[in-house]
Design brief:
With 193 residues, this protein is α/β, with parallel strands linked by helices. It has a single domain, classed as Uracil-DNA Glycosylase, subunit E (3-Layer(aba) Sandwich), CATH 3.40.470.10. The chain contains eight helices and six strands. Strands 1-3-2-4-6-5 form a six-stranded mixed beta sheet, sandwiched between helices. Helix 1 packs antiparallel against helix 4. The two termini are 30 Å apart. The site of uracil (URA) has 12 residues, from loops.
């Protein structure tokens, strides 16, 4: 099946799953993810916030503005990468996703990774890093994001080498503006890789 057809089938399955999910609220959207299906780089965030839930687009609120700036500073275009989250519905009051929520949405992220088959997965923040590193058997290297941000972890898969790069979540800049420079440096590294 073509990638477009496969991703459309998955989106439909995800819509049905979301309708029955406790996080589903009338008038809000599933945030499935968007970008190039042939992307070399996949960005995996945590969960949609308010703006994302009313538009269905990932990273379109405050954290999204910061992400856009970081991408631009690294010379990357949104349309050339694929951006998604682990959890596809907004947790109430933007609370952290629970392990149960992460586990229940994980098959959709797993399938997105399988279809897109990126060369690099950038995990934005601790939740995404935890899930992706465990998924690719890197539990023994897993530490808090302040320790491992910007490091590159190579994983051998059946389809070749996949690089996993944990990064701070862009929202960190809204609490501490100095973090923007740290993130910019890490994004530069990502482009070099
Ligand atoms: N934070 C995330 O992790 N994902 C979004 O889509 C928006 C904010």
């Amino acid at each position: 099946m073509e990638k477009e057809a496969e991703i459309e089938k998955l989106r439909k399955e995800c819509i049905e799953f979301c309708k029955k999910n406790p996080l589903y609220k009338d008038g809000t959207f599933l945030v499935f993810g968007e970008g190039s299906l042939n992307a070399d780089i996949m960005l995996v965030g945590e969960a949609p916030g308010y703006n994302e839930s009313i538009t269905g687009k990932p990273f379109c609120g405050a954290a999204g503005k910061i992400l856009d700036e970081l991408l631009e500073s690294a010379g990357l275009k949104r349309e050339d990468i694929f951006i998604t989250n682990i959890v596809k519905l907004r947790p109430p009051n933007n609370r952290n996703p629970t392990q149960e929520e992460i586990k229940s949405f994980a098959p959709f992220l797993d399938k997105q990774i399988e279809i897109i088959n990126p060369k690099i997965i950038c995990c934005l923040g601790n939740f995404s890093t935890g899930y992706i590193m465990k998924k690719f058997n890197l539990s023994n290297k897993l530490q808090g994001i302040s320790k491992i941000h910007g490091q590159v972890f190579d994983v051998s898969t059946l389809l070749g080498i996949l690089k996993i790069i944990p990064l701070y979540h862009p929202a960190v800049v809204t609490y501490d503006t100095n973090m923007k420079d740290v993130l910019k440096e890490d994004f530069k590294k990502l482009v070099k890789v």
